[in-house]
Amino acid sequence: xxxxxxxSRQPAFLQxxxxxxxxxxxETLRRRHGxxxxxxxxxxxxxxxxxxxxxxxxxxxxxxxGGSRAGALRAGYVPWVGRHSLLTNDGEEWWxxxxxxxxxxxxxxxxGYPEMIAEIAAANIRTWPLxxxxxxxxxxxxITLEVTVRLVFGVRDAGQxxxxxxxxxxxxxxxxxxxxxxxxxxxxxxxxxxxxxxRLPFLPTTRAMRAANAVDDVLFAEIxxxxxxxxxxxxxxxxxxxxxxxxxxxxxxxxEIRDELLTLLEAGLETTATGLSWTFERxxxxxxxxxxxxxxxxxxxxxxxxxxxxxEALRSRPVIFGMGRLLDxxxxxxxxxxxxxxxxxPMFSLILQDSAVYPDPEEFRPExxxxxxxxxxxxxxLPFGGGRRYCVGAQLATMEMKVITREVLRQxxxxxxxxxxxxxxxxxASLIPGRxxxxxxRERPMRRxxxxxxxxxxxxxxxxxx
Length: 466
Ligand code: HEM
Fold this sequence. Notes:
The protein is α+β, with helices and mostly antiparallel strands. Helices cover about 50% and strands about 10% of the residues.
């Protein structure tokens, strides 16, 4: 008989209260109990948390042998993303969709995107206020939204694009409402399906369902238009999904395509915007790394350091702190045995701070991902999860982050509005910069050798320009 791992003895409601600051709480539990510990949060099955990449691999192994399910834990998304979503499904249905979506988001399929992403970023940067503090995260959200509308949904018509953007923003506001988040699951299911509740406009569920219906109106019209158009050359994700065929040669239905488009929006929009916000938050407070990156960009020789900067930002400030699996069979983790019915979580926020792999983990050091250091750093690099459920948008997200970071640094000089690093604040399943990455942007002087002003320490902001 193998024991359960150690863990907190506090009642579940007290453990849940600690989730206001999850990063610190998990770190405390790891220090107290070691690399494997258990937790109990209100409304969830018992959980086991692991804090090394080797232990995470044991959990990911269960993806392949049917020993666990990831989709079952994300059932709360079904009202928005529908029944056919990659996020919420498991088993055969999930595997069929994963095979349909993978090619649309990989390597060659997205190789032509950087130019348009850079254009979208440049247009947004032109709207930034110069010389006074503003929240970078809002602009990163606007850029990633535009990328989704044009390159994922493939909307070219300006009017249709404006309608879709307005509907998506409405959905994002309504579905992000804390009141909705706090509505107990059973009441929420009733309110979302009851014709009576749907007539009460003040309910958060009614607002969210109406916002989702507004998005559907635009999306289904767009899917119909694109089917009629029969463009075999379209390179946007919707165009590729319309042409995709499963193993039996069947195309995806309109409903399946709609569900997956909303899935990509739900999973890809905020995450990429947050990853970018952290990249700038970290760069602004690490002038050496910022200087080295600017040198690389100005010399125009490759993007090895840019790649390392993006990785180090995702390592030091993971957007998602952990993503679990619901165990259908008992799982051996070292000396412990975790019963079926528990949730096993590779905790990225701990794994990416493992000092055995990342010395001085609190320091922002992109050099970890260069040269001979790169291999071990890369092995434990899990901000996009792992196993068979590894983030399907990881390549697109990384490319977007690199292109947008390059474009921003080409156009403006950024300094932090406040020298203190921003805290990691919980927002749904993400950790966002506590003050939304507040920065001060200044016009970049025309490119020549680095001037005295250029080489001044970027963590000491100059007084606002008049
Ligand atoms: C910095 C940006 C992003 C981060 C940090 C991120 C992170 C993650 C993580 C941790 C998972 C869970 C993996 C697991 O369970 O092991 C995931 C899954 C997923 N991500 Fe991302 N993601 C990002 C961007 C994107 C983008 C741009 C898209 C799509 C356009 C996307 C689509 C998805 C989907 C559909 C899943 C579910 C995959 C499945 O269950 O098969 N993500 N992501």
